[in-house]
Amino acid sequence: MKRLFLIGYMGCGKTTTGKRIAEKYGLDFIDLDNYIETRFFKTVSELFKERGEEEFRKMERHMLEEVALFEDVIISTGGGAACFFDNMEMMNECGDTVYLKASAEDLFAYLRTAKQDRPLLRDKTDEEMLAYIKDSLSKREPFYSKAKYTMDSRDMSDKLFDQLLK
Length: 166
Hints:
By secondary structure, the protein is α/β, with parallel strands linked by helices. It has seven helices and five strands. The protein has helices spanning 14-25, 32-40, 44-67, 87-94, 104-111, 126-144, 159-165; strands spanning 3-7, 28-31, 73-76, 96-101, 149-152. Helix 5 crosses helix 6 (126-144). The radius of gyration is 15 Å and the shape is globular.
């Protein structure tokens, strides 16, 4: 039974990496945000807007508990999922956690082209967005650092995954 959680800031490559690794090892892949959208028939942006962040985080926790029971799966969490409640502790108990670490500058370079899809970034100027990423990344780092493994998001080798999923 394999269960691997990919955590990290939005835009660090969790979904792209998760899909690739799941396909390579014949595992199922779940993007937690997509899972939530499918269950509630609304986008994460719509849920954020309608219910607010606090209510969204409760929904996210419930869905995380659900997918944490699945077997032979790679789970890509939302960027904030690791930072609320005792989500990191729960994921570490249920499987292996890998933090895809990226610099604020690398995240900004990627996210500025997709900020309309990100409710927390949508209305920010480039300067405000970079400042926001730096600030929130520093606040989230203590949670992300609880992962069992850390991997540079620019490292596209499968070495760590080969060790974890043999």
